[in-house]
Amino acid sequence: MVATSVIAYPEARAALARLRREGGLTSSEYRRAKTDLDRDWVRFLRVPAGEEICRRAGDLAEREHLRGFDSVHLACYLTLLAERGAPALEFSSFDAALNRAAAKLAQRP
Q1: pLDDT tens track for 86-97
Q2: Per-residue pLDDT, 8
Q3: What is the SS3 assignment for the chain?
């Protein structure tokens, strides 16, 4: 199962639109990517980014020197980790600093 914060959807759509604008995707590739995202999205465990998550994310952004939305993803992961346990969850990102913060914080009791 793949779990992600609900903010991943607009981030993915923005990335696809940027790739299309910059010529990295043809029109048909762009349409296919959007269709694939929408098809896959309903299969993901989508973690809401409510008030509690956002406040935790603010603390994480400050303490771990993260960008805003990166800290929301991390707060969602840490919330799931607390609820479901470490063996069942792995964190993955293209951002090395975010991966380091997740690994560090996942080790804390």
Answers
A1: 567 889 999 999
A2: 97
A3: CCEEECCHHHHHHHHHHHHHHCCCCCHHHHHHHHHHHHHHHCCCEEECCCHHHHHHHHHHHHHHCCCHHHHHHHHHHHHHHHHHCHHHCCCCCCCHHHHHHHHHHHCCC
